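Q: What structure does this chain adopt?
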Amino acid sequence: MREEFVKALSRAGSGEELNRREIITLLQAEPGEEENQLFALADKVRQRYLGDEVHLRGIIEFSNYCRNDCLYCGLRRSNSNIKRYRIPVEEIVAAAKHAADLGYGTIVLQSGEDFHYSGEELAEIIRRVKGVSNFAITACVGERSREDYERMREAGADRYLLKHETADPELFAKLRPGTTLEERVKRLNWLRELGYQVGSGNMVGLPEQTPETLADDILLMKELDVEMAGMGPFIPHHQTPMKDCPPGDVGLTLKALAVARLVLPQTHLPATTALGTLNPEGRQMALGCGANVIMPNLSPAQYREMYAIYPEKAGSKEDADESHERITSLVKKVGRTVSKGRGDSPKELFRNQPA
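A:
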């Protein structure tokens, strides 16, 4: 193994804070012994700080309308070839009831940036779902006003997921026309101020992305002190301007996940659906190098294939019971246990302790 790699890995193993250069060195782990050592340490750190439980967070994708025109996403407003939908509130509540029967402690209410819904309407959906069970509610509805975030928080939203996608401001603006990284980060800070447990994340393998950019993604999430960091590979969609771009590399995604675990030892890291889409073993592999969360799709079956942010999304042809059974079997197969609780962040528990 390279001397600089051994040195950076040793510092990470001792719990020392890694600098940008060391993070880049670890992200460039070479196949074989370097990768094996990186993954083994990430798995050890995950076990030390978060134990062997895997937290299941059930996603209900309640609308695929979106006002944005992101170059990479199948839900982009310019895509006229997609069938749009909004799930009626009663069906959302029914899906939440089924999730409660299956034992879920967290529901993720996710949509495109659909401004058909006012802040109060989103708050009402949250109240209705919160009334089903003692769920932790994660909202994932994009960039809204601070007032809307406040309404959702008061209605019972515990967490908010807002991926920054890339820490490169120029690449961000290019991929997401009409939006800026600065505005994104401003909202992530609002969410923290309003008392949410905050999730962010990035894509791996974007055009023009470099190891330096990936290091900056991890450092940005460290600066934001996120409770969850979602890192998944870019997958091109055939109805977007990026249809001919190559997909992100599974190996690089796993390395980014492992390095994130070393830099963010108490942060929840999902084994993403995108990894499972590119490689049938992708989520199992992620659980072996730092991940401790899986987010099964619990949307009603008739809507699943229409929420096509990328094609052939893993689980899109299943119903909720099939998704749940497959994921729980996967967790047991790798020798881990399914959490029966809400999976609140250990950081949050620490913050709530008296001084």
